[in-house]
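Bug: token stream looks shifted between consecutive jobs. Job 1:
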Amino acid sequence: MEGIKLKNIKMPMVLAFILILTIILIGCTQLNTGEQTIISIPINVNEPNNAYLVNNILNSSNITHFIKVGETVYYSKQDSNSNNFYLIARQNDIEEKLVQTMFLADGLNYFNNNLLFVDGFRLYIFDLSTGNKQYLANVLFDAHSLMIVDNAAYFLNSYSELIEFDLVNGIKKQIANEVLFNFAINSGVVVYKTRCIYTGTPEIRWRLLNSLNESELVVEAAASQITFHNGYIYYLNFASTFTDQSSNMIYRIDRNGVSTRVSEQRTRRYNISGEWIYYSNMDNWHLYRMRLDGTENEKIAEIEVSGIWFYGNELFFLRRAILDIYQINLNTMDISRVNWWD
């Protein structure tokens, strides 16, 4: 077989190939080294924490994601007698079946005396006053990628595109045309993980919710969680290989796009309340907490934890494998088991 004859390749073709390759590389290598200011993200320090949380770890045959509103707890449960699935309201240890569902409902959210939930890749709204259930839209299988901000629900559709659904006027619109993996919203700004359309490099990008402008790169990173808190963007980095020392570390990004590692411990799940980051350690799954800058790290529960939530001054966490719910009073740090599903 004869080798390739370079003299037969026309120079314009070579130049065109080099030009295309250069465009591709430049398009996805705006890596923020942390040494200079390249962007300005309009984050409101006083905005409440609208965190993306990994909630799809309640995979027991009996219980799934819950939400607490006042003294009432809402959750999904399979009836032991009929094997049917129901959305449940529990108050003063008394259960009330609200509506039957096809599967265990997930992604529970509350809005103006309505419950939003995902059931079989479909988003529904349930009116607690009338008992009416209404279909809203198809969603991605990641039901935890659902949040309510002001009067709108934000979620990923079946194409992993970010959708805004106006809960007052019933208007649905697409926010971003990129393929998203998770997101968080603060002060009209959405930050999300996606991939470069040219190279597949994982990226964290931001854009204004009500702007037609293109999104801007924040940092090249694979984030498995994204959280706004006190003017920073926190994320859990997920490297391509477990041996990578940056894998499963918590980082935070300031308004200028400078990314700094916070944790020295590998983390499976985290959530933030006040001046503390609560997380489950990668090595033993135990519950720890540390300051927002990573200092004063301490263990607070020798229980394997796979999910963390806050309601008021209480921390709730899911015990791994056994799938019990525990709560911690953040004033006294007393730990007790919740018996909602007994």
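Job 2, same session, no restart:
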Amino acid sequence: MKVGIISIHSAPYKDSIYSVLSKKNGIELSVFTLYSKSKTHDEWKKTNKLPYINTYSSKVLRLPFFGDYHRDALKFIKNGEFDVVLINGYYPLTCFSILRYLRRKKIKYVYSADTVASKPGILAAIKRRIMRSYINDAISLWVPGKKSLDYHMNTLRLDRTKIYTGSYTFDNQAIHEIIEKNKHEFLKVRESVGISETSFLFLFVGKLIKKRNVKKLIEAFNEIIKLNNNVELLIIGDGEENDYVIKSKSLNNNIHHIERVDFDGLHKYYSIANCYVHPGIEPFSLALVEGSIAGLPIISSYEVGAAMDVLADGENGYVLHFNTTDELKNKMELVINNKFSRDAVSSISSELINYRGHKWAASQLAQALRSNEDVYKK
């Protein structure tokens, strides 16, 4: 089976899955990547040595309103003579032109998306209707996890049997081994950031944009240290709220901030943390997943997609149902006071490491690509 993949950019979760897929019997894999680097994740480096053919786009048209159009992407599909194509639902003009071609030529395709909620407005409704039309003609849908699966089932009314998960999945075993190895450098890493050996450390990793609610996190943390000064907060990331974080750090010695860290360098910070916290909004969140891989209790907003996959509320951490500053503060205090199940933390971590890694994700994708039905049931 000849498989063509339209990939948006290099990423550690995609490269590992596609590498496993390329080694499966009966699959001849070719990947076309639109960008050599992610626009939003500087820490994700381009992978040069891959066990499959990977071609990067070199012809991009910058168009007002429509965004970028990659002229050579459609040529890749036309010349590839693929039995099935995996296409991501991003960069509408490039992907829309490919989807139109695939449907016109009756070439089978798998549609991949991470949507977890509908946007309001007439324009969003029109886009949703167009998207559903193309998804209905796909042989299957590949999504990150449970929240996205629920959205496509309940909002777009798609058949559950045609939806596969795992599109955002690391080599969890490898990451866990790195984190465990880094624990031997616990003191050294903490000292490098200026964090006390004995303090309870909260960790957040991500873009510092409004949707991540970093301001709310800092406000809750500032309330906590009024009663407990042996608690610290490490924020890793940059973005539009960078100045606010830097100012907060200057006013509070218990707040630490690192702007940019390469992906390979991030793991050591999970090894020194006591809890991972994400009070924001995000379709999935691989940072939340890595927190669970590291064996940390998790605090997360219900609006973070990955929470449904790695968080059992009240067991290995807490879901923020209302996502207020007071609720966040209360949940952080519960974790500080060991009000969670260490057995649950260990159990969910073990499941991710041993059963739900990149090999499992590649198996999910292989099943999606081999789906025999041409249309979703409405």
